[in-house]
Amino acid sequence: MLGKGEKRKFDEHEDGLEGKILAPSDGPSKVSYTLQRQTIFNISLMKLYNHRPLTEPSLQKTVLINNMLRRIQEELKQEGSLRPAPAPAPPPPPGPLSDSYREAPPALSAPPPAPAPAPPPPAGGDLGSTTPLDACLTPASLLEDDDDGTFCTSPAAPPAAPLRLPAPAPPPPPPPPPPPPAPEKDSFASALDEIEELCPTPTSPGAAAAAAAAAGPDGSRGCAAAKPDDPKLMDPLPGNFEITTSTGFLTDLTLDDILFADIDTSMYDFDPCTSAAGTASKMAPVSVSADDLLKTLAPYSSQPVAPSQPFKMDLTELDHIMEVLVGS
Amino acid sequence: MNEYRADIISTVEFNHTGELLATGDKGGRVVIFQREQESKNQVHRRGEYNVYSTFQSHEPEFDYLKSLEIEEKINKIRWLPQQNAAYFLLSTNDKTVKLWKVSERDKRPEGYNLKDEEGRLRDPATITTLRVPVLRPMDLMVEATPRRVFANAHTYHINSISVNSDYETYMSADDLRINLWNFEITNQSFNIVDIKPANMEELTEVITAAEFHPHHCNSFVYSSSKGTIRLCDMRASALCDRHSKFFEEPEDPSNRSFFSEIISSISDVKFSHSGRYIMTRDYLTVKVWDLNMENRPIETYQVHDYLRSKLCSLYENDCIFDKFECVWNGSDSVIMTGSYNNFFRMFDRNTKRDVTLEASRENSKPRAILKPRKVCVGGKRRKDEISVDSLDFSKKILHTAWHPSENIIAVAATNNLYIFQDKVN
């Protein structure tokens, strides 16, 4: 298990991070710290969505896990802000509890303490605020060389990429990303390496979230262009995966239910793209997750939708990575 | 082990004299044990505890609004001081507190005029004489009746109840609010603490435990998931949102990890019998605080520090969220708390000695003396030691109780209750 109590030296550069003792700048320790952080990130996400559906989950547990995710996210942002970045810091993340508490199914009087197991159909505007897809999108998108002008924060141009993938049409235009600095190309390669290292489990959230986290800081910078209250204003249409916030790994269950409710599973067969990409090993987990996705195609049943979230993230994330690699 | 077994003990509590010991379980049942009167014939036997009463306190409910079950698991039992022949206790699940009266009946009236012995009405025409019913002995019957039900006051899960020293009020605490009740009034309560943020997105801290001061009926403490304790004075204002004292220990930078916050979350807070100290339990330690010193505890005891390097695994399997309780002995000189592998730990505050004991059937026969256990952290393992990797994390001792005046302890190990006494010479 990670976290064997490796000694870490205090890194002078990371003074700003509340004096945290971080990995030194040399390679191996920093990678292991990043890996551990990534693992904890994944575990936290799984926990939020894998509770017993019959009773209310413990609010204390939910709050502690949320805090953990926020902390990791802050850390990633600050790491990202240490690199040269054209964009200012991103807006503070909307609380992960916000969507959960708003989207309580029949709870009219009191907000439930955690994402409800069987959320009702969403009410449009509220749902667009945050999705895990946002976070997953950022790294791949950022690695493109598009200029600032194409970075779109307006809700008017949702790419809805993964949803339309099964259509015979050519792949939809990728979500316009903010420009990454040139060194990010190298970080992408290293990010993919990290994904590879994390790939041991067939459950793909590791891959997706790894990519998200590894290049996360870039994503967060990309979100800088977004207005602080963008999460609230995001387009309610499904498939709005714009990088308006970097905070969206705490998913809006209802939105995702709608997104994937009617989707044919054949959509998630990425094999043609995979072979074309040449990075088949990285994309391999996607096909495994299709089985899991099958389980999620019952959003309005009494079964928990929970386990699907990381896999849904995975799909969109990989989709965009594919687009980048294919050079669309 | 199936963790959803209904007979898993979820709370243990002695009453104020130690004569009774109550347990609550996951199935909503309360079992009360009573100590045998010591007999002169068997001086070598101390009074043992036998089952006195069993009753179903709470039933599972269904919240139709949220489509969620409300567990019947008894979270806490608190006794009221005895004021007459009957015993009173509070028991609570996640949402509802109930006041139970446990009373004995060992006589019954016989010789009614209008009813016959089976209770059927007699034909008035056959009644020719008048007599006064008399009480005759019967087999002892212990009956429990619910006297009050305090419901619909908590949106979140109740984690604590505490009887005030005025014996007229008590408080119930959930994740975000604390309510003050009068025992006689069930349809309303006063909200005295509310930490729910206007915007739930900003919620980062919850209430984890609360308790009234043992002597000052205006004072109480509550602990949080961020490792802080607040002492509040109800005389200051109706809503005790501002604390009188704030207890928090600064974080040790050398021990910082991803899990620092989670392991700092306080799972239990208990006033000493004297009222001078409070004891808190977080995941790895027990701390004793002096009410007059807010910036750090006066004592810190490591319960199972060998788990510090395993926090990631314990986070993954949810053990890191286990809520261990802690208890004082009657003289506040020894504190006790549970651990894994059915181990529990005692710390003598004066001698600074500590001991690890195990509550398991295999290792203890009646009247046998418990053998101290030791966990070996690394390197060579001695014969009787157990290595960290062999610990059974499904066998956790979360609930223990200490007799108010004698050295008798009750230890709940999953669905078994162990009662240990001092060795009798």
From TrEMBL, chain A:
Region called Disordered, residue ranges: 1-30, 78-231
Biased composition (Pro residues): 85-96, 108-123, 156-182
UniProt biased composition (Basic and acidic residues): 1-18
Native source species: Vulpes vulpes
Protein origin, superkingdom: Eukaryota
Pfam families: SERTA
Cross-referenced PROSITE patterns: SERTA
Protein name, as recorded: SERTA domain-containing protein 2
Segments forming domain SERTA: 33-80
Automatic annotation (TrEMBL), chain B:
Keywords for this protein: Repeat, WD repeat
PROSITE patterns, alphabetized: PR55_1 (PS01024), PR55_2 (PS01025)
Coiled-coil region list: none
Record InterPro entries: PP2A_PR55, PP2A_PR55_CS, WD40/YVTN_repeat-like_dom_sf, WD40_repeat_dom_sf, WD40_rpt
SMART domains registered for this protein in UniProt: WD40
Top-level taxon: Eukaryota
Keyword match Repeat: yes
Keyword Repeat in annotation: yes
Entry's family note: Belongs to the phosphatase 2A regulatory subunit B family.
Protein name in the entry: Serine/threonine-protein phosphatase 2A 55 kDa regulatory subunit B
Organismal lineage: Eukaryota, Metazoa, Chordata, Craniata, Vertebrata
